[in-house]
Design goal:
Shape: globular
Largest sheet: 4 strands, antiparallel
Strand content: 15-25%
Number of helices: 10
Helix content: 40-55%
Oligomer: single chain
Structural class: alpha+beta
Length: 277
């Protein structure tokens, strides 16, 4: 969570590294039908894409949308294989623990050894993935939020009341209004959805704007400051580059180890866009 971001705009805890995200295409190359059916409906595809979009704070590309489905399929296969091998017996951990156990087992059995990249290789990796290490644009903002069951004031009334000295925390629903510093587009998207996040990040500094509608209710927002996106040089992010380099190596090794297992499954995807890729 970013410093200064209050509870009403907090980020949920995220599992570090979606190894499966880079497995794009594996399930579509391995076409032979297996013994078990994994069915992916259009509704499931949309839900998976929306969750990922809320996480990254933008609309997914077609390639990324396909990759999200691949990640789900990998997880489903790992869960089934973990259960097949009895890793679920006496284990009350959640689904991610099962897949984690199975990933570790596959990597061990494949003889995977973590790479030891040179600085030249790390710098090349950084240059290819430079956008990944940018600091995103951030804003300082205030918001007044009315829940869907409340009747919001008009924007003009809110502007007059705030100008007269009324605290914004007393407006809107109790505990829902407040201020936040250093908020990214992804921060807003994870709490209120991508559509509202995109609207907020187009606002000028210094003016109350609204109403904006999200699943949480009706929002009025004022941007008080903006910090533009900036690039970070290799030296700043070298520890993260090393970590990502290792994760990508694990992903490739896992894809190789998972390929024979994937042949056991017949995958049915009822989505023309995904199937056409």
């Amino acid at each position: 969570m970013m410093t200064g971001v209050p509870a009403w705009l907090s980020r949920s805890s995220l599992e570090v590294g979606l190894l499966a995200l880079a497995l794009y295409g594996i399930f579509y190359v391995l076409r032979p039908a297996g013994d078990e059916l994994i069915e992916v409906t259009p509704v499931m595809v949309e839900e998976l894409a929306q969750r990922r979009e809320a996480l990254v704070g933008r609309i997914l590309t077609e390639t990324e949308r396909n990759a999200v489905v691949d990640a789900f399929l990998e997880e489903e296969i790992l869960v089934r294989e973990a259960v097949r091998r009895g890793l679920d017996r006496g284990d009350a951990q959640i689904r991610s623990m099962l897949t984690g156990d199975q990933r570790a087992e596959l990597l061990r059995s494949s003889g995977f050894e973590p790479p030891a990249p040179s600085e030249v290789e790390l710098r090349e990796y950084y240059e290819v993935h430079e956008q990944r290490y940018q600091v995103p644009e951030r804003v300082d903002l205030e918001q007044i939020l009315y829940s869907a069951s409340s009747t919001p004031l008009a924007l003009e009334e809110i502007v007059k009341m705030v100008a007269s000295g009324v605290e914004i925390s007393t407006l809107g629903d109790v505990g829902a209004s407040g201020s936040a510093s250093g908020v990214s587009r992804a921060d807003v998207s994870q709490v209120y959805g991508l559509e509202l996040a995109n609207e907020i990040f187009t606002l000028d500094v210094g003016q109350w704007r609204g109403p904006f509608v999200s699943p949480a209710g009706t929002h009025f927002v004022r941007i008080n400051g903006r910090t533009p996106r900036r690039e970070r040089n290799f030296e700043e992010v070298q520890p993260y580059v090393i970590q990502d380099y290792h994760l990508d190596a694990e992903t490739r090794a896992l894809a190789d180890a998972l390929a024979p297992l994937a042949r056991r499954y017949h995958v049915s995807i009822e989505d023309e866009q995904i199937r056409s890729q």
